[in-house]
Amino acid sequence: MYKSNRPAKSGVKVPATSSFSLAVVAAALLTLVLVAVAAAAAEEIGDISHLLPTAGRAYACSCIEPGPPAQALAESDRVFVGKVLSVESANNGRTVTFEAERAWKGIDSRAVTLNTASSSASCGYDFEEGKEYLVYAQKGEVSLCSRTAPAELATADYAALGEAYDPVPGVMTPEPPARFVSAGQLATIVAAIVAAGGAAAWGASYILKKKKGKKRS
């Protein structure tokens, strides 16, 4: 009887399919962990919806016509006429400082600081330093979609809003600038997830090939 001189293999054989399945599970778990980390980072950095490629935000601001002055007054936190002292860029947005001259709601100081988006394409209002505006603000933000307008063009609003009051001189605590995630930070998060997923997939493929090679030998 013919006897093979090849030494018998010892140990328990692990099917290649089982190893591949374990590798796939490990890759999936790693990807889930990275996605969770990215989500936590995005939450810490701030709202990133303005960077998403939606039709309204990526190409142009899409507005619904604002309601009449009385409705805008009710829906706004602050309504006043003020002169723009400065416009400064901050975290992909703009911080605007006003000297309030008269007000209808929410103003108790001459100094008022509000935020608006970085451009009219993202519904930001393009204020000019030295000019006066009738401002309608919500939660510290001024939108191009509001009834905000140059003071000389808001005659109809003045008649509807009624008598204004004189803000008390002093310094108001500035609203904190809107928190935005930069395009670079978002790209880094996405690149990290893609790279980790690719590495995990390569590892799973390598393990499968190695098992198949051992099986043939």
What summary fits the major beta sheet?
5 strands, antiparallel
Any idea what the shape is?
A: rod-shaped
Mean pLDDT: 76
Q: Which architecture of the largest domain would the CATH scheme give at its second level?
A: Beta Barrel
Biggest sheet, strands in spatial order? 3-2-1-4-5
Instruction: Give the total of domains.
Output: 2
Order of helices and strands: HHHEEEEEHH
Strand tally is 5
How much of the sequence lies in strands comes to: 15-25%
Helix coverage percent: 25-40%
Rg, nearest Å: 30 Å
- Residue stretches low in confidence (pLDDT < 50, at least 5 long) are 44-59, 171-181
What's the helix count? 5
Mind telling me the CATH class of the largest domain? Mainly Beta
Description:
There is one protein chain. The protein contains 5 helices and 5 strands, in the order H-H-H-E-E-E-E-E-H-H. It is α+β, with helices and mostly antiparallel strands. The protein folds into 2 domains: 16-44 and 183-216; 57-161, OB fold (Dihydrolipoamide Acetyltransferase, E2P) (Beta Barrel). It starts with 15 loop residues before the first helix and ends with a helix. The relative contact order is 0.19.
Write the topology of this structure:
Blueprint lengths: L15 H30 L9 H4 L10 H7 L2 E13 L2 E13 L5 E7 L14 E6 L11 E2 L4 H7 L21 H34 L1
Antiparallel strand pairs: 1-2, 1-4, 2-3, 4-5
Helix pairs in contact: 1-5
Keywords, please?
5 strands, OB fold (Dihydrolipoamide Acetyltransferase, E2P), 217 residues, rod-shaped, single chain
Task: Please summarize what this structure is.
The protein has 217 residues and is an alpha+beta fold. It contains five helices and five strands, in the order αααβββββαα.
